[in-house]
């Protein structure tokens, strides 16, 4: 009795799915009037559910390949970053659960969430049509593998632009009031395009340390990883216009009995390009 009920259920699912898919169904019976086959056909393929009976008239059912009532969705994560993919009514949490089964033609919504320090780069595989949208809706009309790309978040870095600008410095001057050496530095943009900030001036290979004098000259904004002092000369949100010259940037140095020498490096904070969608 249980097998008969299972057969009826399978036939019902088969019949409803066939109508949904727009295919034709034909039933075949044996000489005893028992159902032996439920065949379906469409322009490019055909198949059938077969019903067989043993010597005790127990029913056995064979569901053909290509007409499964359940299909599998698998998630694969790619890239240099990290993140999770969730959805499918809680069946997918990848993370840990990256494979789940769904009813044929069931609509599944997936959401890609990058971890801190990562960015979502886009979908591939069975979800390719969703592009870079973090939310992807797909119809499970067959087994599918969706690829989710996560890349390490772009980190801004200082780029040496010394060759793109002009720099000039005065001879070493003496401030009797503050008992310090100082120099005046000019930084210009000879190009036809503006240089966006932040831009900093780094002093390298100093023979005498920089000195801070309140209200007089520039105050260092920090030191590089190499320990060189730097000064922000174009703040973030501003720019050094084409042809513009920053004149007489005063830098103070301690008063010591040695020759003052140093190098000048001009750097611009640059953000790498965002990850290219998969």
Give structural notes:
- The chain is mainly beta and 278 residues long.
- The chain is built from one helix and 23 strands.
- The protein folds into three domains: 61 residues, no CATH class; 83 residues; 114 residues, Immunoglobulin-like (Sandwich).
- A five-stranded antiparallel sheet has the order 13-23-18-20-19, with no helix packed on it. A four-stranded antiparallel sheet has the order 1-2-3-4, with helices on one face. A four-stranded mixed sheet has the order 8-5-12-10, with no helix packed on it.
- The longest helix has 20 residues.
- It is rod-shaped and about 120 Å long.
- The relative contact order is 0.13.
- The N terminus is likely disordered.
Task: Give the helices and strands, then pairings.
Elements: H1 2-21, E1 24-29, E2 35-42, E3 45-53, E4 59-62, E5 70-78, E6 83-87, E7 92-94, E8 99-103, E9 106-114, E10 118-125, E11 135-140, E12 144-152, E13 157-160, E14 166-169, E15 173-175, E16 180-188, E17 195-196, E18 199-204, E19 222-223, E20 229-234, E21 239-240, E22 245-253, E23 263-270
Parallel strand pairs: 5-12
Antiparallel strand pairs: 1-2, 2-3, 3-4, 5-8, 6-7, 6-9, 9-11, 10-12, 13-23, 14-16, 15-16, 16-22, 17-21, 18-20, 18-23, 19-20
Give a brief outline of the structure:
This protein has 278 residues and is mainly β. 7% of the residues lie in helices and 49% in strands.
């Amino acid at each position: 009795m249980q097998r008969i009920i299972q057969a009826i259920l399978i036939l019902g699912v088969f019949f409803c799915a066939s109508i949904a898919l727009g295919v034709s169904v034909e039933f075949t019976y044996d000489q005893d009037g028992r159902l032996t086959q439920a065949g379906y056909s469409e322009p490019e393929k055909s198949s059938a559910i077969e019903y067989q009976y043993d010597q005790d008239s127990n029913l056995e059912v064979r569901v053909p390949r290509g007409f499964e009532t359940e299909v599998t969705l698998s998630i694969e994560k790619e890239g240099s970053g990290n993140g999770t993919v969730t959805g499918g009514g809680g069946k997918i949490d990848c993370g840990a659960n990256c494979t789940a089964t769904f009813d044929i033609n069931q609509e599944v919504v997936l959401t890609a969430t990058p971890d801190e320090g990562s960015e979502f780069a886009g979908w591939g595989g069975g979800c390719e049509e969703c592009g870079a949208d973090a939310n992807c809706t797909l119809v499970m009309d067959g087994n599918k593998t969706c690829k989710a790309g996560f890349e390490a978040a772009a980190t801004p870095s200082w780029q040496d632009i010394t060759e793109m600008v002009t720099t000039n410095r005065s001879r070493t001057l003496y401030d009797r009031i503050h008992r310090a050496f100082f120099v005046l530095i000019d930084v210009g943009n000879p190009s036809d395009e503006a240089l966006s900030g932040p831009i900093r001036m780094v002093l390298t290979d100093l023979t005498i340390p920089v000195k801070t004098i309140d209200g007089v000259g520039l105050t260092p904004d920090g030191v590089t990883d190499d320990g060189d002092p730097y000064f922000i000369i174009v703040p973030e949100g501003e720019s050094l216009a084409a042809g513009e010259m920053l004149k007489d940037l005063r830098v103070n140095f301690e008063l010591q009995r040695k020759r003052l020498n140093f190098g000048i490096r001009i750097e611009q904070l640059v953000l790498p390009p965002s990850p290219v969608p998969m």
